[in-house]
């Protein structure tokens, strides 16, 4: 049943109200729903999510089903495999090897080992263990509003979880490369150098610098491309590894290339991946440069009950094939350019819009009141878009960046609908 929106207050239909109450009763207090008026979807189809009342929403937020909801190639691959065999990595199987072969070939140097997990958090947790083992260090450097996941170890270096979640004393923060402290090509490596020195002064050797290659939770920071390369050199000189967290930016999201770090001409020591990897099937993992995992592999056996199971590998293979065979990277680049061009045109007419940034189909739009970040207006826009049938969200340390992340298969029509709806919401202020 549809929800009524009365003077900025949502009146939930009784069915939705019952679900909200059941969640609180059954799932407890840690879960959160999106939007002032929660959504109850019953079906996904390409770029669309369909609610219980049959209303269609353009999904410009979910970076998991990035080939579109219920993509037929992935559905077929999963269905076939689950009807044939679902086991684990303690038996020989071709699918994991084919996937490893395909993914390792996408690394700039064509080298690496693939290790599979079920979530991005687990992938980063494993990267952290490997980095400590390979370097002997125990310190980590992250950006000030980074998000890398929910395990105990990873939450400690995910400052975007908020001040209630403690950061470890082995964690050093650097400002997001947003130009605030000068050209990121100079300021970002300099900040990493200072953070490494600070850790060392406290007797902590750095094990890794880990960054989301598109700095999504820091506010989507793509440019200038290239600044990650000198930062990687700095952390290596300090004895640590450079880890590219591609959970958001991987699998063609940035257009023109498979991985976000490729925009920076850098070869990471470890690349972690997840979210869009199975287009909805839980599959994640990392690729590590071979010499870095030798010691870890000798000392710690690695087994993950569900990680690398044939069903998840079949899903990931279908994703990799679809990206390669359907010209998606090119579509992402073209649609991303179209979106940013239209958004910049909108920014000329609406003072609330500040900088428009991003790469491919990961796009950030700053919302400002004069020169100040405007989190209240940002929330109004996100909820206004939702009420008009377009799903986006927000990010950034001041919660004032629109986070726009449509499926890689969007067409001109969808981009125009998205930006047109944003124009309507801005005009309705
Ligand atoms: N890294 C980044 C950059 C992410 O955005 C996320 C999820 N939002 C994660 C890691 C964690 O992934 P997961 O939720 O699959 O554990």
How would you describe this protein?
With 429 residues, the chain is α/β, with parallel strands linked by helices. It has two domains: 2-70 and 328-427, Alpha-Beta Complex (Aspartate Aminotransferase, domain 1); 72-325, Aspartate Aminotransferase, domain 2, CATH 3.40.640. Helix content is 37%, strand content 19%. It has twelve helices and 18 strands. The protein has helices at 14-27, 72-82, 94-104, 120-135, 152-155, 184-201, 228-237, 294-299, 310-325, 328-349, 375-387, 412-427; strands at residues 4-6, 9-11, 41-45, 48-51, 56-59, 113-117, 139-143, 171-174, 206-212, 241-245, 270-273, 284-288, 353-359, 362-369, 372-373, 390-391, 393-395, 401-404. The strands form four sheets. It has a seven-stranded mixed β-sheet with strand order 6-12-11-10-9-7-8, with helices on both faces. The chain is globular and about 60 Å long. It starts with a strand and ends with a helix. 49% of the residues are buried. The model has no long low-confidence stretch (mean pLDDT 96). Bound molecules: 4'-deoxy-4'-aminopyridoxal-5'-phosphate.
């Amino acid at each position: 049943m549809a929800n009524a929106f009365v003077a900025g207050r949502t009146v939930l239909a009784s069915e939705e109200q019952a679900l909200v109450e059941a969640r609180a009763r059954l799932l407890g207090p840690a879960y959160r729903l999106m939007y002032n008026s929660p959504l109850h979807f019953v079906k996904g189809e390409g770029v669309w999510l369909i609610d219980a009342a049959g209303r269609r929403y353009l999904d410009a937020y979910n970076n998991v089903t990035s080939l579109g909801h219920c993509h037929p190639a992935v559905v077929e691959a999963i269905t076939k495999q689950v009807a044939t065999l679902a086991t684990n990595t303690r038996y020989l199987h071709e699918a994991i090897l084919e996937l490893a072969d395909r993914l390792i070939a996408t690394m700039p140097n064509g080298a690496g080992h693939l290790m599979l997990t079920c979530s991005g958090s687990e992938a980063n947790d494993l990267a952290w263990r490997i980095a400590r083992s390979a370097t002997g260090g125990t310190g980590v450097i992250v950006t000030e509003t980074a998000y890398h996941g929910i395990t105990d170890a990873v939450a400690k270096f995910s400052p975007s979880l908020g001040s209630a979640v403690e950061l470890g004393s082995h964690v050093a923060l650097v400002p997001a490369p947003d130009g605030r402290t000068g050209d990121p090509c100079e300021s970002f490596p300099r900040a990493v150098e200072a953070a490494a020195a600070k850790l060392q002064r406290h007797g902590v050797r750095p094990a890794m610098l880990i960054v989301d290659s598109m700095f999504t939770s820091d506010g989507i920071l793509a440019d200038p491309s290239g600044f990650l390369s000198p930062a990687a050199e700095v952390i290596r000189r300090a004895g640590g590894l450079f880890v590219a967290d591609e959970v958001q930016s991987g699998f063609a999201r940035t257009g023109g290339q498979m991985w976000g770090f490729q925009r920076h001409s850098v070869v990471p020591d470890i690349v972690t991946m997840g979210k869009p990897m199975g287009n909805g099937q839980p599959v994640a993992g990392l690729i590590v440069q071979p010499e870095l995992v030798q010691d870890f592999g000798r000392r710690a056996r690695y087994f993950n009950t569900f990680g690398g199971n044939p069903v998840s590998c079949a899903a990931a293979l279908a994703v990799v094939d679809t990206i390669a065979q359907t010209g998606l990277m090119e579509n992402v680049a073209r649609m991303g350019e179209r979106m940013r061009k239209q958004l910049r045109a909108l920014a000329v007419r609406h003072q609330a819009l500040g900088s428009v940034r991003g790469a491919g189909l990961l796009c950030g739009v700053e919302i400002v009141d004069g020169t100040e970040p405007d989190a209240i207006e940002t929330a109004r826009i996100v909820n206004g878009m939702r009420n008009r049938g377009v799903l986006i969200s927000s990010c950034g340390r001041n919660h004032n960046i629109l986070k726009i992340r449509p499926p890689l298969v969007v067409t001109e029509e969808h981009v125009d609908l998205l930006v047109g709806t944003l124009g309507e919401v801005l005009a309705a202020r």
